[in-house]
């Protein structure tokens, strides 16, 4: 666990190291427990956030947005945007932009099955509350963008 925490390796790299340490001669003979390790890592990160934001041992439950860090770089009206930013001819520079990977897609973030879609948070951090997200999906129109990445 020290290698994961100090070296900031991915959980998959940490899992591969555990397999090699468990059976150096035949690491492929070690049972595949990567999914369980990855799930425990997500739970650990969630507990760590709850502790960092002060909700650990006081009986309080985090509310919507309570587990989100303040981002000084994100445009926020009344904080780091000028009053007339909507009338500015260069208002494009005040918009947030989100990118997934090098192909500008986030298809690898979609769960393969419904039972694998486990919500550890429901509106507390940057994650949307589950019922509001379901309402959005019901009314949203999906656009298929042309993928220009060579891997697809």
TrEMBL record:
Protein known as: CxC2-like cysteine cluster KDZ transposase-associated domain-containing protein
Superkingdom of the organism of origin: Eukaryota
């Amino acid at each position: 666990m020290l290698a994961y925490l100090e070296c900031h390796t991915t959980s998959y790299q940490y899992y591969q190291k555990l397999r090699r340490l468990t059976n150096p001669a035949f690491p492929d003979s070690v049972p595949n427990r990567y999914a369980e390790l990855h799930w425990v890592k997500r739970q650990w990160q969630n507990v760590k956030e709850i502790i960092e934001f002060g909700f650990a041992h006081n009986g309080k439950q985090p509310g919507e947005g309570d587990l989100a860090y303040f981002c000084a770089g994100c445009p926020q009206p009344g904080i780091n945007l000028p009053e007339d930013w909507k009338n500015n001819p260069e208002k494009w520079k005040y918009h947030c932009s989100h990118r997934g990977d090098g192909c500008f897609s986030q298809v690898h973030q979609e769960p393969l099955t419904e039972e694998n879609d486990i919500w550890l948070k429901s509106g507390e951090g940057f994650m949307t509350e589950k019922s509001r997200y379901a309402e959005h999906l019901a009314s949203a129109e999906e656009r298929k963008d042309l993928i220009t990445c060579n891997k697809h």
